[in-house]
Amino acid sequence: MNFGLVEDGFYRSAQPSELNFSFLEKLNLRTVIWVGAEEPSEILRSFLDSQGIELHNLAPQVQLNPHFPPPYTDGGVVPFSGQLHLPPLPPPPEPLIIQALTLLLQPSSFPTLVCCNMGRHRTGTVVGCYRKLQRWALSSILEEYRRYAGMKVRVLNEQFIELFDTDLVSGTAQPAPA
């Protein structure tokens, strides 16, 4: 599930499955912010509806991030040292990050869970930008991102976090309400 506590009342994870629902019930969530590139599963939607948990589905934002090059169009394969490699995936679109952070700055949304398919890159980018709002040191932000990304760190996501302009988000991040 790649689950973690960001701070009191703010959690992160991969897309929860049926096996995780009894655990999620104990968190008394008010909000789930879905930042995945694809739609959340129907079983997750049904669970959230049955629990009265508000789903903010940010998945429909499919445009590419304009600050990063588009993916290759020649079959998506790049020659490198005699081997073929897929090009790096761009980070999530900036509007998605801003929208997620704006929701996270609303005390009425807590307790909340931010999640995407695997809980690594998109969720990690949202959390990394949230940490920037909290004025964490970049080295600490990237260490946390890497802890959840595991062996699949995306350098473009790290670069996005580093260059993210916190002035684009109104308000400032405070610890979640108790």
Strand order of the biggest β-sheet:
1-2-7-3-4
Q: What is the overall shape?
A: globular
- Element pattern in H and E: EEHEHEEEHEHHH
Low-confidence stretches: none
Beta-strand residue fraction: 15-25%
The end-to-end span amounts to 25 Å
| Oligomer status | single chain
Helix coverage percent: 25-40%
Largest sheet: 5 strands, mixed
Total helical segments: 6
Average pLDDT works out at: 83
What would you call the structural class? alpha/beta
**What is the count of β-strands?**
7
Radius of gyration: 17 Å
Overall description:
With 178 residues, the protein is an alpha/beta fold. Helices cover 34% and strands 16% of the residues. It contains 6 helices and 7 strands, in the order ββαβαβββαβααα. The chain has helices spanning 21-26, 42-51, 94-104, 121-133, 138-149, 155-163; strands at 4-7, 10-14, 31-34, 54-57, 78-80, 83-85, 112-116. A 5-stranded mixed beta sheet has the order 1-2-7-3-4, sandwiched between helices. Strands 5-6 form a two-stranded antiparallel sheet. A hairpin with a 2-residue loop joins β5 and β6 (83-85). α3 crosses α4 (121-133) and α4 (121-133) packs antiparallel against α5. The longest helix has 13 residues, at 121-133. The two termini are 25 Å apart.
